[in-house]
């Protein structure tokens, strides 16, 4: 059973990802509100639902690689 101030994972709508949160409000045995430890946003407990699935390291690498590749100019073969 979580207590006030305990750390808990939850989805932050401001950060747009799952982050560490602190429990702010409890009703009975259920967490009602949490505060994001990254941005400080206080919101109702979402039970870590509501956002997109986090990217794996490989997916993040591929996304960055494709954006960099798209920005690079094409090389031209020149004769010397």
Fold and architecture overview:
This protein is of the alpha+beta class and 80 residues long. It has one domain. It contains 1 helix and 4 strands. The chain has one helix spanning 57-71; strands at 7-12, 17-27, 30-36, 42-44. The chain has a 4-stranded antiparallel sheet, with no helix packed on it. Strand 3 and strand 4 (42-44) form a beta hairpin. The longest helix is centred in the C-terminal third of the chain and has 15 residues, at 57-71. It starts with 6 loop residues before the first strand and ends in a 9-residue tail after the last helix.
In a nutshell, what does this entry contain?
The protein is of the alpha+beta class and 80 residues long.
């Amino acid at each position: 059973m979580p207590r006030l101030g305990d750390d808990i994972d939850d989805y932050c709508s401001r950060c747009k990802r799952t982050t560490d949160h602190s429990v702010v409000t409890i009703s009975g045995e259920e967490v009602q509100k949490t505060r994001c430890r990254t941005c400080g946003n206080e919101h109702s407990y979402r039970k870590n639902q509501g956002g997109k699935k986090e990217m794996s390291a490989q997916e993040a690498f591929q996304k960055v690689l494709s954006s960099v590749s798209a920005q690079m100019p094409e090389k031209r073969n020149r004769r010397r």
